[in-house]
Amino acid sequence: MNFFKIFFYLRDLAQIILTGLYDFFLVLLTRRNALPLFLNQILFNGLDALPILTVVSFLVGMGTVAEAGIELPKLGVQNLVGPIILHIILRIVGPFTTALIVTARTASSLTVEIGNMRISGELDTIEMMGANISYFLLAPRLFGAIVSTVALSLYFAVIAFLGGLLIAFFGLSMPIVSLIRALETSINLSDLLIPLVESITYGSIIAAVGSYHGLKVGDSPADVPQQTTRALVSSIVLCTLFSTFFLVFSSVLF
User: What GO annotations for molecular function exist for this entry (predicted)?
Assistant: First the structure.
């Protein structure tokens, strides 16, 4: 029974993602006046997360460069400083940490927002009017979460590298010139494509999970905190599982 519950749960999430993406492209082709809905979701999901993401990414960059610059030369692998720093920040820590921060904000806010709309009867009114809930409700939030996660992951990498350069500038781990040269000679196309795929997937998972649990809210206000907790837990678990399998898969190919 648990296997079938998980299967149908994942099926419903995939349906929300595919339907939301289809409705988004439909909006682009037919109703450009609805684009402000999508832009508002990007601003809501992205801007409010910048302060905490800035602090976390700056500290992560400082710690990564400090450890790599001090410990790797002791092992005699100075030439791997650049690839390791890029691998950790761009492929592993950056996208996943960004996903956790977006989960804490977006998944919970989506569940609360849609759940309150269910309790107040707004969703029932939309359905009675024959309007497409995905068109006006799910698609903008899915698109906003995806774009915000991608942009925030890029922002995370930039701020993390600035934190690493600050450490190198003061000479606490390695000369700043050596760090810049190591990063320039180590970066390749896969270091950009893999974080992009990860961020898109994380954003899709977070938006789909938050929307799903928001729609699962019943008539009781007590359902809102329960579904919000489930949305947070499910988002973290699914993002962690995807990160693990994707990193193993990408390490084999790249």
Answer: phospholipid transporter activity
Q: In this predicted structure, what is the pLDDT of residue 168?
A: 77
Per-residue pLDDT tens over the stretch 104-125: 888 888 899 888 888 888 887 8
Instruction: Map residue 157 onto helix, strand or coil.
Output: helix
Q: How far apart are CA 103 and CA 56, in angstroms?
A: 15
Which has the closest alpha carbon to 197: 127, 237, 253, 124?
A: 253
Q: With beta carbons less than 8 A apart as the criterion, state whether 163 and 60 touch.
A: yes
Q: pLDDT tens for residues 43-97?
A: 777 777 888 899 999 998 888 888 877 777 777 766 777 777 888 888 888 899 9
Distance CA 116, CA 213 (A): 12
Side-chain-side CA neighbours of residue 123 (13 Å): 18
3-state secondary structure 198-250: HHHHHHHHHHHHHHHHHHCCCCCCCHHHHHHHHHHHHHHHHHHHHHHHHHHHH
Quickly count: other Cβ atoms within 10 Å of residue 185's Cβ.
Answer: 11
Tokens of 158: 């930039």
